[in-house]
Design goal:
Blueprint (H helix, E strand, L loop, with lengths): L1 H14 L11 H12 L2 H6 L1 H5 L7 E7 L8 E8 L2 E8 L12 E5 L1 H9 L6 H7 L3 E3 L2 H6 L1 H13 L11
Parallel strand pairs: 1-4
Antiparallel strand pairs: 1-2, 2-3, 4-5
Length: 171
């Protein structure tokens, strides 16, 4: 009898669970991307020096958005140097910190180009996306060029973090 009640209880709980897909580049997606950054050894280990170029603020900002959704849809990652490693300390909507494109980055692309960039398809790697104009970019370009390999690993995260790319813009 107890086994039957437990099974009914589990089935009832399971029936009430709703799975909500994250919209590409919404605040929830940004949080998941921050978590994925911290699990990626290329990003954490190879961007330590890069992350310390922060105007002595203790963080760098990366803001990205979908061109179709406009600048008001930006999401933000804050990256800090922690013991020589580049650690994502925040992922979500912009948190009010001022972007300084001497050390920070703002990037956007069309949904079609984000899909290509996220796959790392031919012509859509970091260098190709920047050179072709698929990825619009503000920030220290020479610094970005010096870390092109790890930068590409970041861009590929946009295709690895689960989401739905609908016509809906993140809120």
């Amino acid at each position: 009898m107890l086994k039957k009640l437990s099974l009914v209880a589990l089935m009832t709980v399971g029936a009430s669970v709703t799975i909500t897909a994250t919209e590409f580049m919404d605040a929830s997606w940004a949080k998941s991307t921050c978590d994925a950054w911290n699990k990626n050894a290329t990003l954490t280990n190879k961007l330590g020096k890069w992350s310390s170029n922060d105007k002595k603020r203790g963080y760098k900002i990366i803001q990205i958005y979908r061109t179709e959704c406009g600048k008001s849809s930006k999401i933000q990652l804050n990256i800090s140097n922690k013991n020589g490693k580049a650690i994502c300390t925040y992922g979500g909507k912009p948190d009010g910190k001022k972007v300084n494109t001497d050390v920070d980055y703002v990037m956007h692309a069309s949904d079609k180009d984000w899909t290509c960039i996220g796959k790392g398809s031919f012509g859509c790697g970091a260098m190709g996306a920047m050179a072709s104009g698929k990825l619009k970019f503000s920030g220290p370009k020479m610094e970005a060029m010096s870390v092109m390999g790890p930068f590409e690993a970041f861009l590929k995260l946009t295709g690895k973090v689960a989401s739905t790319k609908s016509k809906n813009c993140p809120k």
